[in-house]
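Input record (one chain):
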Amino acid sequence: MTYDFPKRFLWGSATAGHQVEGNNDNSDFWAEEQVEGSPYNEKSGEAIDHYTLYKEDIALMASLGLKVFRFSIEWARIEPEPGRYSQTAINHYRDVLKTCYEHNITPFVAMHHFASPKWLMQFGGWASPDVPDRFAKYCEVVFRELGELIPYVLTMNEVNLPVMLRELFTSIGFIPPVGIGRDAWTAPGWREEAAKLCGATSDQYFTFHMLSDERSLHILRQTHQKARQAIKSIQPNTLVGLSMALSDVQCIQGGEKIAAAKWQSYFSQYLPMIEEDDFFGLQNYTREVYGPNGQVQPDKEAELTQMGYEFYPEGLSNVVRKVAQSISIPIIITEHGIATENDSRRVEFIRKGLAGLQSCLEDGIDIRGYLHWSTFDNYEWNSGYTKQFGLIEVDRTTQKRKVKESARFLGQIAKSSSLVNN
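The corresponding structure, as predicted from the sequence alone:
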């Protein structure tokens, strides 16, 4: 059976600056990686050197047939000191954008993907009431310089992840950054040392991944809304949204109330933020099943990914349908992927996910694109370089790229905007 997608459907893949560019040494994540007792298994270092190799990388994506490249502009590079903006960094990202157009690839930009400037911690980090204006000013500077080259933008990536992490780690009384295990988070002293590297104290140290209490969520809402206003005032034709990480929340008998509360926490409480957005960025990797006593773990026979997630590509369409019940703006899949060394499973993950999207389209749900996570095997935060999410393998000794079959598979779909589902 052949599934045909809309002709203007966005087909591509995604990256994050800190995970691929390398040497993002002015960021808070860089500081956390450096200190003794750090929960990061290894330092990001030069990553996959995409900051240097972006021209070759974009050309490679184009040769595969991919049509869209989602990447982040790093705030820490653009504004290395409060109120001082780097023309060198701006020129770099201008060239990245222009290189996309040279290869007929549509750029899709995230203004923030987890990492923030170190200096922000000196002002109280993301708990500071000044953050909305500081972030809006950063967006204003970027869009005055580069806005005409940016047709799609996420103000922030996975705004709901801090709440998901808070619920996961409540039992130990800490709110850890993305992907950090319980034992690592309790390692003594590392957070205080990271604060020092940022020129701050531990009581000032409040990263993006701690945005989960009522006060900081209010700051988050203001930040998105002010950033959107700043962007639209300069480039009204740029389509603006944000993204959320959304597992397919399911329940068995007796788990209905818990599942409903999880969905409210993960998604519904954020709806006021996006009322004036142009699209919604939906990101899905697996499902979560709840019973009367909380989350139910996958069966012993279930296939798990390198991240410990259940292999469940059907979750994508399930989440799309749930989200579509609550919003009236278009949906773009801004991340969907799997960490595995078995690339044939990645192909199957993509195939089943897209088959589910096609059924949603047939039912009239407005879906505008699919961006796979991720373009490359890259730095996966505290897991270092041990997780393989990429369509393209990278030998970090030589930085040589090696195309996987999944990249060719998705590229062929992008070329024809159709999926042959055997």
